[in-house]
Amino acid sequence: MRNQRWLLAAALTLPFAPAAAQAAPPPPPPRFAKCADLQAKFPHGVARPEAVDVVRGVAKPATKFTVHPVLYLANRHLDRDRDGVACEKR
């Protein structure tokens, strides 16, 4: 019984894991200034999930864009037609 009390007291006094051992937050997604910069890395643009490219006339919608919700939110200022696909290109 005496040893059990000592173990319990020792366990309660142990320090928790240091702050350096905790996982660091992921880096923020890149924010591009213009579509040419974004398309250099993502040739067909980026989109939020379930987004569909809106087109007019006989043009076919883009379908090969990268679906990445966090990256889209960081670059939604580049989505001019507000269809959920930024810098879309066929």
Automatic annotation (TrEMBL):
Residues 1-23 form the signal peptide. The keyword Signal applies. This is Excalibur calcium-binding domain-containing protein. Residues 33-88 form the Excalibur calcium-binding domain. Pfam families: Excalibur. Keywords: Signal. It comes from the Bacteria.
